[in-house]
Hints:
Number of strands of chain B: 19
Number of helices of chain A: 8
Largest sheet of chain B: 5 strands, mixed
Distance between the termini of chain A: 69 Å
CATH superfamily of the largest domain in chain B: Reverse transcriptase/Diguanylate cyclase domain
Strand content of chain B: 15-25%
Number of domains of chain B: 4
Number of helices of chain B: 16
Helix content of chain A: 10-25%
Structural class of chain B: alpha+beta
Strand order of the largest sheet of chain B: 5-6-1-7-8
CATH topology of the largest domain in chain B: Alpha-Beta Plaits
Largest sheet of chain A: 8 strands, antiparallel
Shape of chain B: globular
Strand order of the largest sheet of chain A: 6-2-3-4-17-16-15-10
Oligomer: heterodimer
CATH class of the largest domain in chain B: Alpha Beta
Distance between the termini of chain B: 60 Å
Structural class of chain A: alpha+beta
Largest interface: A-B, 24 and 12 residues
Number of strands of chain A: 26
Radius of gyration of chain B: 28 Å
Amino acid sequence: xxxxxxxxxxxxxxxxxxxxxxxxxxxxxxxxVLIKAMGDQIIITANDxxxxxxxxxxxxxxxxxxxxxxxxxxxxxxREYPDNEIPVNEVENRxxxxxxxxxxxxxxxxxxxxxxxxxxxxxxxxIEINAGDLxxxxxxxxxxxxxxxxxxxxxxxxxxxxxxxxxxxxxxxxSTDSRRLNCYDAPYKGDLVxxxxxxxxxxxxxxxxxxxxxxxxESIKVGIKDNHFIFQRVNESIMIKLLxxxxxxxxxxxxxxxxxxIEVDRTMFFTLMRRVSILTSDDYKSVILNFRxxxxxxxxxxxxxxxxxxxxxxxxxxxxxxxxxxPRYFMDALNLFDQSTVVIHIKEVKTPCxxxxxxxxxxxxxxxAMHLS
Amino acid sequence: MILHIDMDAFFxxxxxxxxxxLQNRPVVISGNSPRAVVSTASYEARQFGxxxxxxxxxxxxxxxHLMVVPADMKKYSENSRRIMAIISQFTPLVEPVSIDxxxxxxxxxxxxxxxxxxxxxxxxxxxxxxxxxxxxxxIAPVKFLAKIASDMNKPDGLTHISQEQMPQxxxxxxxxxxxxxxxxxxxxxxILNIHTLGDVQRFDxxxxxxxxxxxxxxxxxxxxxxxxxxxxAQALRKSISGETTLAADIFDFxxxxxxxxxxxxxxxxxxxxxxxxxxxxSIKIKFSDFTxxxxxxxxxxxxxxxxxxxxxxLSLFKxxxxxxxxxxxxxxxxxxxxxxxxxxxxxxxxxxxxIKRQWESVDRAVDSIFEKFGRDMVAPAVLQPAxxxxxxxxxxxxxxxxxxxxxxxxxxxxxxxxxxxxxxQKIGVSGYVRNLADGSVEAVFQGTPDQVARMEKWxxxxxxxxxxxxVFTEKIPxxxxxxxxxxxx
Lengths: 373, 489
């Protein structure tokens, strides 16, 4: 095979797929990228056995063919190559020549027959979502990160659901690590067909997906079929294999019916939390929130460093509530909101705190309290 | 002002206090093997020129009626703990340096307890009243002088170097007394014509650094009465561990498992007693060739139950490829935190949470039984000898035990060994008895725990014509094919 392509577009894509090809799997070939030259296009595929990316780009194809080459090295070569036009030529015996003239690489490639097959999923009932909404949804889910050797399915993955609010259907994504829970609803167009089982998308795949959603107002097609979550935009698609398992009933957690709502200025509350978090350390992560008549005081005592106290006026008139939380979780949650005012819902000690916006909008963040003895 | 409190011949003094037969006699605390060295010598023994670290055989040559007592570290640390507690009543700034010495900074405590020497007297009096032990105390404005002072008037001494006396004291202080000045430094000192600490004042910092390195700079400060080291109250415990050198090297998994369980329980109990929880468990394995390996793992949440610690220790142990016999096994925990520290709660408790809580309450119960009735009242069934399978062909028999006893007093030339043989045959234990060069008798008894206990009791009585002053026993490994009792010469 022999082709050449324009550096700019392909370089950007290669950079974005490094996350997929960089993941350790049981097959070494998953660190490769598959390039198929056909007609006047090249098709780039990355597959870590869970997330599969395919993108089609314009190229100047002289002879057609397929090649599997180390993704990281290929990316670095393209990045550093001095010219914009980059020729690629398979010489013989899987040896690949990249470049020409003064700058020439001779790289050994793998047998493309070993590259994992791309699942073929046809006749998907896609729905259309605004790119901005999808981006926000994925961000809200990814903030709740997965640590080390986590095994709980409901922590490893985020739930996809269809919910109806005021006769309008919404696509909902729920993500939790059992200490906090984010829930985002996005409006969509089309018919959403969901399987009977819970749809749980691995968060790792979502992180990769996030890189491909632009801020632009374009519509993105998503669908769920054959145990995969499928994402499709103009010339690129991503398929993420779903996790098998049951998602616990999260709805009671975000139910604010019996809670007291307190309006606070988002920026003020965020900066306050950032100030108290200065004194947190690995061993002392908790700050105490004390809600009193028209006043919220936040204190932290770290025996290794010292103490700090913050006070802010709030519109509250119930009984005094004293509860401990990790300020980091508040900062993460408050960062997801765009509105200048948010509503903090509280009930009593040792129960979660729930943050919403003023008009019960699309984002709900629940944060579990810390146990004080 | 800084106090340096140093117990007088601590181990020996404790033994002499607890055993009237040892009082006013030359006593050394030491192991009993041919390679043993003296760990502490009583003041009576010191008169014979016996000192710490002297090989035991040499000490015996210095004094033919020397009493050798095996060390009982548990007893000494308990005494040490009480001593530290007494000192802590006078000031919060107590820095234990070792089991028998401590620094105490009494700055600001004078208004409460009087001048430094009065405080020192009170400490000495309290230790004497509560524990019947004497100590020597040095008082000085700086730490290094306090240590030197405590050593000046031993035993039962009290030396006070006041701020005003300090310059003169430094002038006259022989240079070899300074901690850190050894044989090599002494050679240099001789060349520089330095005999006392005061002599050092003649030299500038650059020259001292050149001659003695970093220590030179310290000398430069010390000779001017400057010592920046502060008394540091005990730092927080970073880890807790327990290890045991096995009676005999082992290879089988079952025994290793039991040892790990024993250690995990010990560590767990210590952890819970201190009101802590841990987030990391480690194991240590030393092989018969003295190479060692360690493994550790961080846990998902804070734990404190022995069962949880054992579970992780065992899974760590399973990861190690054992190719050599094991000599020592240990379990440790770290990343400690108070059990009352705030814990992030979860919407959904992870699986096994209930079981974890249940094991913790089991441990609480076992711990309180331990506190009240002592060790081994309650233990996991696998660790109860009665439940373990009998070893060897004598199936159904209780496991054997073996002790070595050293009997001193008027025990030679009184048919002691003959009587021992008769008693041993009557009771049915195997082993041997022989005379030792120091006039005592050594005997080994092997049999069921009951038989051995009866034999031990007999030793205290001894032969009709003998007078038994002391019987020291220690547990030694059982020798499987020892079936008879003999007199050795």
